[in-house]
Amino acid sequence: MRFHALFIAILFPSPLLLVASGPGFVPSHIADAKPQVEEAALAKARELTEKSEFDEAETLTREFIAKNPSGAAGHFLLGLIYFRQVQSQARSGGIYSAPGEVPSRAVNEEMRSAKIRASLAEFTEGAKFARPSAFDLKIVALDYILLGDYPSADKWLTLAVQEEPSDAESWYYLGRTKYGENRFEEAIQAFQKSLELRPRNVLAGDGLGLSFAGLNRSAEAISAFQDAISWQSGAAATQSPEPFIDLGDFLNQQGRFEEALPVLQQAVAIGPRNIRAHEILGRTLLNLDRLADAQHELEIAVSADADRAALHYLLSQIYRKQGQMEKARKEMRRFQELKAKEPSSKSGMR
């Protein structure tokens, strides 16, 4: 579960996780500190936010803040609007129906960073005048995740679940954050709590499997992945490929390539546009020395995300084994160019 995966999961939340919310959802407890009788302009801004009409909502909220600079509700709402704008703008960059379909450079990083920092500034300003709600704290934490700051995200998610211990989504994101910090035991506890509150949640079960894998508890990891897979039923369009991908990847890491193959083939069947599914399947086929099939999978992945360095490295290995040395050198050069542009590693990234 790399940083990019968590980053994209926030910008393109899965309906398997967000069963009660969406890009414009504003819970009724978003601003517990606001007066019972709220200015009509701010109430209208909330309505617009729920409808994902963020530009109009921002204008009205700014007008409200100009007249009520010490009103926490206005600042908290503007912080949320900025966060939702980042989600909305990320979606507008391409037609993606699931997180795994999003290429690595689909998001304008400069725009995203500036907007997220503006969101944090509004929550900070609002906190001068009233205590943020648990929902506000969760949005602050997700802001920090988008900035790659796991320790800060951990801090605010921990406070959020203390304030609202029945929020399964906050426990889930806390588990993902703990995993990103390599704090696997604590991640397991958070995912288990999320599953207590929302049983049979596929993504929480998948996170549990990844956390067991991080501790080299292989049997428990495989069992958790298989549970997450078994909780899905119905047509492939309603399923998530993530537990299939992560189980296949884990088996691959253990050298159990024959076992990984059908699992990953199922992942591709469920998510034919999922880039990582094609990548891990291609890697498995390479390990099985099925070079033509591996090349096919990796070329599909590269066509979807030409800026993912690992894909070019794998292709270079395939071409080299096939004796296509010029193609192998070209892919290796592309791999090295992309690696040189990558930011330095953060805790929990791999």
Count of DSSP E strands?
0
In CATH terms, what is the architecture of the largest domain? Alpha Horseshoe
Terminal residue distance: 8 Å
Mean pLDDT, nearest integer?
86
CATH level-four homologous superfamily name of the largest domain = Tetratricopeptide repeat domain
Identify the CATH class of the largest domain: Mainly Alpha
Give, in order, the helices and strands: HHHHHHHHHHHHHHHHH
Strand percentage: under 5%
Main sheet attributes: strand count, strand direction, barrel closure? none
How many domains make up the coordinates? 3
Q: Uncertain regions: pLDDT < 50 for 5+ in a row?
A: 17-37, 345-350
DSSP summary: helix tally: 17
Query: The CATH topology of the largest domain, please?
Result: Serine Threonine Protein Phosphatase 5, Tetratricopeptide repeat
Work out the helicity level: 55-70%
Structural class determined from secondary elements: mainly alpha
Report Rg: 22 Å
Envelope shape: globular
Would you give an account of this structure?
With 350 residues, the protein is mainly α. It folds into three domains: 1-164, Tetratricopeptide repeat domain (Serine Threonine Protein Phosphatase 5, Tetratricopeptide repeat); 168-231, Tetratricopeptide repeat domain (Serine Threonine Protein Phosphatase 5, Tetratricopeptide repeat, Alpha Horseshoe), CATH 1.25.40; 240-350, Tetratricopeptide repeat domain (Serine Threonine Protein Phosphatase 5, Tetratricopeptide repeat, Alpha Horseshoe), CATH 1.25.40.10. The protein contains 17 helices and no strands. It has helices at residues 3-11, 40-50, 54-67, 72-91, 109-126, 134-146, 150-163, 168-180, 184-197, 202-214, 218-230, 242-253, 257-270, 275-287, 291-304, 309-321, 325-341. Helix 7 packs antiparallel against helix 8, helix 11 (218-230) runs antiparallel to helix 12 and helix 16 (309-321) packs antiparallel against helix 17 (325-341).
